[in-house]
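Support case: user asked for a sample of complex input and structure output to validate their parser. Sending the pair below.
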Amino acid sequence: QKEVEQNSGPLSVPEGAIASLNCTYSDRGSQSFFWYRQYSGKSPELIMSIYSNGDKEDGRFTAQLNKASQYVSLLIRDSQPSDSATYLCAVNPGSSNTGKLIFGQGTTLQVKP
Amino acid sequence: DAGVIQSPRHEVTEMGQEVTLRCKPISGHDYLFWYRQTMMRGLELLIYFNNNVPIDDSGMPEDRFSAKMPNASFSTLKIQPSEPRDSAVYFCASSLGGGPSSYEQYFGPGTRLTVT
């Protein structure tokens, strides 16, 4: 079992719809969770961080964390073609007590006009 | 702040040559990370430093790879000798550290390495 798992996609949604990206992790002691967006040919860009169970909203983005189910998700409301990118889930392993992050393989999102 | 700075942005070299990649982290960040990204393997952590000290180099593929951080504002990743399978994008990232809420990593633009 991979430490951080994501569906590689592509996930295709029409413009204006809600895109739902999902991530599961194996280390139950993990405390910090991050979502990065990576456009083709560019570097990963941090868009959301979440540390507590529940929802965290930032503009059109909502991160959801459920530690009991070891599940973190990212919702993008009113999806735009400019949201088309690969979204990487990253988790700080609870056992590390350091700044190390484990990244998933990423989910490619395509928003069609 | 200028963000994480990497050089060169592109490097094309022949098999067997030495390659040196450079990184300047964000000022004040205590952690520095080197990653490699390929289509097949995704984003892989190679090595990371805390306060200039290497903490975990278990991701370094083999002895041909080495990394140093002589001071808080500079790190190098060296490949000697280079091989075609080393072709990838190499990213440097930095973070504040100091606790779960400070583990956000910020990435540099990357170095695209091609070994022919």
